[in-house]
Amino acid sequence: MKFFAIAGVAISVLSAAVLSTPAEAQQWPARQVRLIVPYPAGGNVDSAARVVADRLQAKLGQPFIVENKAGAGGLIAGEAFAKMPPDGYALFVGANGPVLFAPEIAKREAYSWKRDFVPITSITMTPLVLEVHPSVPAKNLKEFLELPRRDPGKLTMASPGQGTTNHLLSELMQSTLGLQWLTVHYRGNAPALNDLIGGQVQFALDQISVGLPSIKSGMLRALAVTGSRRASWLPDVPTFTELGYKEFDGQTFTGLFAPARTPAEIVTKLHETLAEILKDPAIIEKFNALGAEAVSMTPAEFTSYLEREDAKWIPVVRKANIKAD
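^ that's the sequence the OP posted. Answer follows.
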């Protein structure tokens, strides 16, 4: 009898916990929410997180605190986040590298976005620009591509790191077009850009937000941009697509994720709130100043987008045998 009494209490407690979940989800947020950022403070992903954190706090009435957890190309933050409780009080502001590429490049089953993350919405999309040092004798993309055809391996490209979208786009271009150049990997955008401006390397495939000031000042020359349409920041620069290279449509995203098994009520509330925030002209202008476009997808749209990106870029990682440093 004692066993059954204890078992009965256990079942009652479990049932109460299960039944309380929808109510708790409806009351969310009841306390501070952490936004985990897998990069140091000051970069594009961190900036995006801080822009939306302020507005989420204003609209939902609880503090949204950005917590930077950098290292291993986002792997450290991603692995820790995958183990966090699915209660909506820890969210992940991720980008291409930490979400899609890091586990594959590290050759570790640390986490999988398909298994461990719930995509809530995209936040921004940022095109890349093919930019060259003025000493490079190419005024357009056609002339640029002739250079490695004539002298394979002579051109040098500045990459902000192994396994970045910049690096993968470079590998895809070389593989698809049968070209070859030397890729020099740096630890971040700043040192890569400095050496490009100084002429130590000759070109880069850079986020527009990084290269734009140097392009505007004439220190670099822009030849083509990624994306389905011309970038508003560089309206005179054609897209790869309009030049006949639609497969080179590599962009970087920032997006919001919850841990797997987070209640649907919380996911829906976050998506609806962020969709409203990202339509605000003031927010659009803030992201525009960062060289990014505010874009809100539904959870289903964002999941489909990530699946397409996964299918496109993971084979590039494997074919180029890209590994962690």
